[in-house]
Amino acid sequence: MLQYLVAGGLKINNYMNNQIIKISEIANLLDINYYGIDSDIDGLNLCNREIISNSVVSYISSEKFISNGISNTKIRGLFVTKEVYEVILKKEGFKRDIAFFIVDYPEVEFYKLHEILYSRTSFYKKFNFESVLGQNCIIHPTSVIEDGVIIGNNVRIGANSVIKKGTVINDNTVVGSCTVIGAEGFQLIYDEFNVPFTVTHVGGTYIGKNVLINDNCTISNALFEGNVIIDDNCKIDSQVHIGHNCKIGKNSVITGNSLLMGTVELKENVWIAPSATVSNKCVVHNNSFVGSMSLVANNISENSRVCGIPAIPVDEYIKIIVQQKKIIKNGRENSKNNK
């Protein structure tokens, strides 16, 4: 079976787990040496992100990320510079069974490995199965449902929309016209010659029950493991972009022209007003409201109402506006008196 029920939601079974590769095989693929334990690896991820796999390879680009890399027991291989490697060895009590690849450009070599694993090996699961369609669905004839998609019951998909492989859409969800779900996320890296290249995304996209995704929206997929998640009962207005690795909690509303950058998390019952932007890795907690045309640059606490650029509590914003009006008024009066 390609689908089964867990906590009332469709899941992809056996198609989300990567195959195993050994540290020594990675070294052979890249034609480099390694130092340490020849562990089994079942994933790649960044050292400062949530890791789902049991044993992953990551990288450390500078000393400030050393604690992230060596404290996470799921990280079993690290790309590091010689300088960072020497700092790690000097750390008191360091006895982790990590393998190290010592290279000049850890980030570049890490992403090169990722691309090689995707293009030349069967390490990553690529959702290569015939799509599953539930009962009573209405799919517009101009829409595209790629292979590797699971769609529940009573789902509606509008004209010219594209549902890309690795996507799960649960019961009673509505997708408007000209929307793309599971779109390739945008991760850009500069190589050792300072030339930019984009990174292939291999994760999925999960849409819960009773979700509305209106017209001209783009919902990205996850970069490495897991899914971009839009949970049950969320409502997303037209022309919304949701970047890679985002998580949208139950009953949340995102209104028109809003932008969620990568790895944003909205908890439950969040409201994003029109044309707002939430910056990378920000968390907006339960029952919070973000005003129109705001820029969220920091985490927003529970039950908050914020607005502005950058977004601050509404009460503070109003005080600033009142003060600015007073300054302008006083300036005009002083100008008149000086004439």
UniProtKB/TrEMBL annotation:
Coiled coil: none annotated. Transmembrane segments: none annotated. SUPFAM superfamilies: Trimeric LpxA-like enzymes (SSF51161). Keywords: Acyltransferase, Transferase. InterPro entries: Hexapep, Trans_hexapeptide_repeat, Trimer_LpxA-like_sf. One of its GO terms (molecular function) is acyltransferase activity. Belongs to the transferase hexapeptide repeat family. PANTHER family: ACETYLTRANSFERASE, UDP-N-ACETYLBACILLOSAMINE N-ACETYLTRANSFERASE. This is UDP-3-O-[3-hydroxymyristoyl] glucosamine N-acyltransferase. It comes from Flavobacterium granuli.
